[in-house]
Amino acid sequence: MTVVTENRPWRGVLVATALPLDDDLRVDHAKYAEHCAWLVENGCDGVVPNGSLGEYQVLTPEERAKVVETAVTAIGGSRVMPGVAAYGSAESRRWAEQARDAGCTSVMLLPPNAYRADERSVLAHYEEVAKAGVPIVAYNNPIDTKVDLVPELLAKLHGEGYIQAVKEFSGDVRRAYQLAELAPELDLLIGADDVLLELALAGAKGWVAGYPNALPRSTVELYRAAVGGDLDTAKKLYAQLHPLLRWDSKVEFVQAIKLSMDIVGRHGGRCRPPRVPLLPEQEAAIRAATEQAVAAGLA
Q1: Which class for 41: exposed (0-12), middle (13-18), buried (19 or more C-beta within 10 A)?
Q2: Residue 155: is it exposed, middle or buried by C-beta count within 10 angstroms (0-12/13-18/19+)?
Q3: Is 149:108 a contact under the CB 8 Å cutoff?
Q4: Which family does it belong to (predicted)?
Q5: Residue 161 — φ and ψ, nearest 5°?
Q6: If you count Cβ atoms within 10 Å of the first and of the last residue's Cβ in the chain, which end, N or C, has fewer?
């Protein structure tokens, strides 16, 4: 099924939102709604609930659905691009339908990740979820999923009309240029905070971002400067923020970003198991880098 879209709501800075939990590790939907609104008020273009930063893997189906509905109520469906990853294609399609029915105008979808899927399985997966009729942004995270959406495969997915954009998390910035040659109409989105400048210069149209959860104004300024060609501003901000941005590509990225949120006065808080607290040396490094950013006026 080909999904055609003139509007491209995934462009700009879409924050993969951290999810506030209370002391009993229950989702605090009121705080989540306030967080989504705060991000938009501070320059972000939208949010991505139910990504890995939002701990979707450990949410109940009821919680996962309500998180989407909460974000839509807070900032409007066109600003909300939920993650719809699941082990089965039918389940991912149901999540895409839920997002569509809640008012969302795009979704983000990992390839099959219950096993190391081959190309035919990947194509079938995206074909099935595209039947929901909502534009799909593919999410390439070969580090965690062990399935690599290489440029040739992404071009096939786009050529079939299954995807409109890709969140690229491989870290290989060379792929941006090959992808532009193979599928020039496919939007490239920055998928890892610590390659933002490199992918912005390579023509990225958006950023599915982690660290704006804690530092929205300075990170949005960095993105706008980078895609706008203001390299003096971008390079300075990138150097200042990179000690934090690189945590977005580490195993402990959820805990790191939540800690930075706590330090700047937001609600980061705890994570659900199996995520465990940071090691003392990790916490010290993140705390020092966050406090340095605050002292530099970047919070």
Answers
A1: exposed
A2: middle
A3: no
A4: Belongs to the DapA family.
A5: 85, 10
A6: N
Phi then psi for residue 21, to 5 deg, are -120, 150
Quick check: helix, strand or coil at residue 196?
helix
What pLDDT score was predicted for residue 50?
98
Angle at 171 between CA 168 and CA 175, to 5 degrees: 65
Q: Is the pLDDT of residue 5 over 60?
A: no
* Contact in structure between 215 and 264 (CB atoms under 8 Å): yes
* Number of CB atoms found within 10 A of residue 123's CB: 17
Compute the average pLDDT of residues 235-243.
98
Residues 232, 198, 247, 58, Cα dihedral to 10°: 130
Closest CA to 178 of 159, 153, 157, 142: 153
CB atoms within 10 A of CB 4: 7
Q: Select from 214, 211, 213, 239 the least CA-distant residue to 225.
A: 239
Phi-psi region of 269 (alpha: psi -120 to 50; beta: other; left: phi over 0): left
Q: Are 136 and 163 in contact (CB under 8 A)?
A: yes
Instruction: Compute the half-sphere exposure of residue 247: CA atoms within 13 Å on the CB side of its CA.
Output: 25
